[in-house]
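Exercise 3.2. Students should predict the tertiary structure of the chain below and write it as structure tokens, then compare their answer with the key that follows.

Predict this chain's 3D structure.
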Amino acid sequence: MAADARAVHQADGKDLCRVAMQPGPRPVFIKEGQFEHLYIRTGNSTRLLTTKEAIDYCKTRWKSP
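Answer key:
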């Protein structure tokens, strides 16, 4: 997935890179050992979903045609 927009800014003398992305067409699960996890971005943080949350999120985010 390619970034839609990138910009470099300075704050407190440090370089910050801002990357804007479009939502993906399907969920992407991260394999950690023998388990697969679904994380979502909420605001400026990343959150691991429980199994029930992941199922509900996928049902509402990627509705079947």
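Discussion points: The two ends are 23 Å apart (CA to CA). The longest helix spans residues 51-61.
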